[in-house]
Amino acid sequence: MMKDIFKGVCSRFPKGVTVITGRRPSDGLPVGMTVSAFTGVSLEPPTVLICLRRDSATTAMLLAGDHFAVNVLSAHQQEISQRFATRGPENRFDGIDWQEGPNGVPLLPGTIGHFVCRRRSTVADGDHYVVFGEVVGGLYEPEEYPLVYWAGAYRGLAA
Questions:
Q1: What does the mean pLDDT of the chain come to?
Q2: Domain at 2-151, CATH homologous superfamily
Q3: What is the DSSP string of the chain?
C-alpha cells in the first residue's frame, strides 16, 4: 500500500526531463539515459544532483567516467526522451547530430540548456545511485520551454 501511495504522489509532482550523457572510458562510446531526478544543490561550488538506477547497464557506463552532461530537454523533444529511455545503449545516438563538449561529453542539440559536470561523489541508496556533480560548464537558451513529465505523460509549458 505504501508503495502505491509513494508512486501516486511522486507521479503528481511535475518533473523536468533530462538526458544524462557521457563517454564510456574503455572505448569512447557516447552513452546516455533519460533521467527525471535532477536538481540544483549548491551555488558555491555550483553543484547538481542526479539519480540513476542501480540495475542499469547505462548507469555503470556513465559512472565509469569522471564527467557527464545534463541535457535539459525542450518541449519538442519527447522523442529524444523516449529514445534514451528505451533503446539499447549502443544506438541511442544514431541519427542525432550531437556535439562533443568539454571533457568529451556528448551534448544534444535543441535543448533548453546543458551543464557539463565533474562527478564529485556517488552514494548508493535503495535502488538508485545519487550522484553529485560540480558544474564546470554550461549553456542555456532562455526562449525555450522545458519538456515536463507529470501523471505518467509528457507535458509542455506555455507562456
A1: 92
A2: Electron Transport, Fmn-binding Protein; Chain A (2.30.110.10)
A3: -HHHHHHHHHHTS-EE-EEEEEE-TTT--EEEEEE--EEEEEETTEEEEEEEETT-HHHHHHHTSSEEEEEE-BTT-HHHHHHHHHS-GGGTTTT---EE-GGG-EE-TT-SEEEEEEEEEEEEETTEEEEEEEEEEEEE-TT--BEEEETTEEEE---
